[in-house]
Amino acid sequence: MIQHSRRTKKRGAIELSMNTIIIVVIGITILTLGLRWIYSVFGGLTEQSDQIKTISEDQIREIFRDSGEPINIPTSIASVAQGKNYNMRVLMRNIYPAAHKFRYVVDAESTIPPGSVTWSKGDIPLSSGQGFEDIITFDARKYALGTYRFRVKLTCLDCTPPEEDSAPIVLEVTTK
Hints:
By secondary structure, this protein is of the alpha+beta class. It has helices at 2-42, 45-65; strands at 71-72, 77-81, 85-93, 100-108, 117-118, 124-126, 131-139, 146-156, 163-174.
């Protein structure tokens, strides 16, 4: 009888370890399927958020095109992760009754690394009411964490006396 009870214990131990293995496999399968389902539901939120942001910026840009201001920046306050580039749209318009040549520059109101912001530097001829759109690229790989202030200056070169308008830009560099 003692031998019979040892066999029963061994058989019980084997059944217990088989049940444990089956439960672990089923648990891992359910966990994997659950994680994939959660990722499929919530994984596209970042892309959808970026699309909504782009659409809203385009709509803001369209609204500003009807504005009478010489410089329009749809998003003059921007937040960018360190190590990324940020492209900012700038719209400029000739608000004078005749055609003129314009030049715009981006001046930093704080110390910035050289080459960390790029923009068009050439003269821009614009007829009365005509607009010009450009992209200013901020290279946040070259910035330390913090807030940086810039000013977009639009100068009418052949106005007498030369006229200048400006608009502020605030760039906040955050952690990745």
